[in-house]
Amino acid sequence: MGEFADKLAAKPLSYQRAYLGSLLPNYVKSGNLQKYYQTLTDFNFLIAKIQHPEFGGQALIDDFDLVGASESLTHPEYNSEKAKSLNLIQRTLRLSAHIWVRDRTQLAGQLLGRLLYFEMPPIQAMLEVAKQWKAAAWLRPLTPCLTPPRRGLLRTIEGHSNSVNAVAVIAHGKQAISGSGDNTLKVWDLTTGKEQFTLTGHRNSVNAVAVTADGKRAISGSWDNTLKVWDLTIGKELFTLKGHSNSVNSVAVTADGKRTIFGSFDHTLKVWDLTTGKEEFTLNGHSNSVNSVAVTADGKRSISGSRDKTLKVWDLTTGKEEFTLKGHSNSVNAVAVTADGKLVISGSSDKTIKVWDLTTRKELFTLRGHSDLVNAVAVTADGQRAISGSWDNTLKVWDLTTGKEEFTLEGHSDSVNAVVVTADGQRAISGSLDTTIKVWDLTTGDELFTFKGHSHWVNAVAVTADGKRAISGSWDNTLKVWDLTTQKEPFTLEGHSNWVNAVAITADGKRAISGSDDNSIKIWDLTTGKEEFTFKGRSNLVKAVAITPDGKRAISGSDHNCIKVWDLTTGDELFTLEGHSDWVNAVAVTDDGKRAISGSSDKTIKVWDLTTGKEQFTLEGHNNWVNAVAVTADGKRAISGSLDNTIRVWDLTTGKKLKDHSNSVYAVAVTADGKRVISGSRDNTLKVWDLTTGNIIASFMSENPIASCAIAPDGVTIVVGEESGRVYFLRLEGVEALT
Questions:
Q1: Gap between the Cα atoms of 438 and 395, Å rounded
Q2: What is the dihedral of CA 188, 189, 194, 195, to 10 degrees?
Q3: 565-579 per-position pLDDT tens digit
Q4: What is the pTM of this model?
Q5: What residues contact 712, with CB distance under 8 A and at least 6 apart?
């Protein structure tokens, strides 16, 4: 850990607590900014403080605020470059706090993955020390692979066990409340990211939440057909409102906190008096589910959006419909109204946002840019900007004066279901199907960074036998070749007309083979970067490919439930292996070339004799699709990964199971010595397992589901492909490389 950490660790905990707690305040008090800068860019200090049981993650983040900005500028030891470095480190710690607070061994990897972009000497010096961390085995990023502290994202908040469907900000902007598919609401401290309390009572998914202007009460709507009113000062339910015959999809509350309006799947809106708990009236008019509702600041009008493709404007004094706004070509999923009550913003399944003038009752303009349906919209208090959330996993910020997109916020790994803006317009809070809440800075004008990789899911990666190159295949229809020494992309292989699902490389590293949803298998010359030829059998989607060690045969798996064996010299199909009752998603070949192992959507693994073309036996145990298979070099064990969240290790007659992923396992790879397995999952983690003990050696927390992984012959260099399209490289530290 370094001399500093070693010396500190030898002291009693009470001494450590006093030292770590007073060191930086003393430097500030004595005016020693030089030491203050130096300590906060010392990786050993950072890791020592977060590992001490008396200090939480927020204590370290707060250390960076001990010197105010104005105070720093006038100090004789002020250094603008060091101050900028501290700001980036603090933002990185805040960005990744949800990860390293849970697992302290992740700190070095998170700092490297996010700060390798920056060439500033203080940051690079800190990262050099972080690279040497040896307290535990860990996965070290060789390239920038995580969101840096300059892309709008401030913090990720975790705690729900299912989709976050609704978010609202409590009046002072320091807290937020979320509603989830796990049937609960949670109240969060936005400064620390900590959960303050959970509200339980709904019997089904919570779809909507609103908060009164004084921040004292919340109103939630659920698939259990009810609306509940909660006292946020004591964290208790006050009462339940019943009346809808189907799920409650949306909720709004008037500014005076006296009435609530909510829309339902039963095609109606209901207006309730929050003082008496009585229904005032029902608003009828939509011909399909009411997905969203907003209310003007004066409480006189409500605007609803429906699956019937329309918006309706209602007079809350009379309970009558004023008029209907038509223009969307699909379901209206979200509505928001400006503070002056003059404009309405709507988001739709037609992938657009529309801005409407409530005075003229006309559409002003349409905002286009999302690549999937728009689930959520919010508008700043000054009416200058709108923020939208989409099934394309992004948020977009729009200038309502020009009708132009300002920028896109990326970070969620699944659909963005909800978005809200703080009263000062400086932050947005989003909720997602990925179960997280994210807090975004809307003021940042920092440069954006481009991640290396594809523009869509990376479904497959493979490494050459000499460990010098890797090849990735993607849903963007391309393959990319990577130099593992420089981590640069020498060239891209283009030719497939649909998703590339699988890739394999011959033992001599001269050719690659790819399988695609365009029903073809292509053979590529890796020296020239050119396509040699294409295999086409009957029309089927090629989901998996493997090559025999002698480079003479290829094995492919498809959605026609079969495996085909091909002659790579002639291009002819040799024979078909039949036996699976569903898609074949993965294939592997033993090192002697005599057997193939296949994994299928029928939940089984089958072992095949490639000499006779016969099935030898079936391995059963998974209770969902088998997505990945690998085999040890001695051919004695097979490893499988499944949608049932497990990895199983088989001795090909009996099974041993490893289990520690919280979501579907998409990829597995095994080291050349057969002692370790690497797995990638939709839970955003890459794990390294010891096959002897079944224990996890190391793990890496990414920001997106991991769709593919491969390991170089040295047993420590790992190539990772994500659903996001990113490709990056990790090194397993604390373990000797294979010779």
A1: 11
A2: -30
A3: 999 988 889 999 999
A4: 0.86
A5: 463, 467, 470, 484, 718, 719
CA 31, 33, 39 angle in degrees (round to 5)? Answer: 125
Give the neighbor-by-neighbor strand order of the sheet with 604-609. 584-589, 595-600, 604-609, 614-620
How far, in whole angstroms, is CA 4 from its chain's centroid?
A: 36
- Assign 243 to helix, strand or coil: coil
Give the 3-state secondary structure percentages of the chain, helix then strand then coil, rounded to 5. 15, 45, 40
For residue 698, what are the β-bridge partners?
Answer: 688
Tokens 């994500």 correspond to 722
d(Cα 284, Cα 245) in Å, to the nearest integer?
A: 14
Which residues in the chain come in under a pLDDT of 50? 1, 70
Give the per-residue pLDDT at 1: 46
- Please state, in angstroms and rounded to a whole number, the distance separating the CA atoms of residues 547 and 641: 20
Alpha-helical (H) ranges within 64-192 are 69-73, 80-100, 107-115, 121-131
Question: Which residue in 363, 258, 237 sits closest to 316, CA to CA?
Answer: 258
Token representation of residue 118: 């920056």
Could you give phi then psi for residue 46, rounded to 5 degrees? -60, -50
Contact 591, 615 (CB under 8 A): no
**pLDDT value for 256:** 95
Residue 476 has which token pair?
């963007």
Task: Identify any residues that bridge with 356 across adjacent strands, giving them in sequence order.
Answer: 344, 363
What confidence score (pLDDT) does residue 651 get? 86
Which residues have a Cβ under 8 Å from the Cβ of 271 and sit 6 or more positions away? 259, 260, 261, 279, 280, 281, 282, 283, 302, 316, 319
The whole-angstrom separation of Cα 413 and Cα 366 is 26
- Strand partners for 521: 515, 535
CA–CA separation, 317 and 250 (whole Å): 20
Distance CA(82)–CA(71), nearest Å, equals 15
Closest CA to 323 of 302, 297, 351: 302
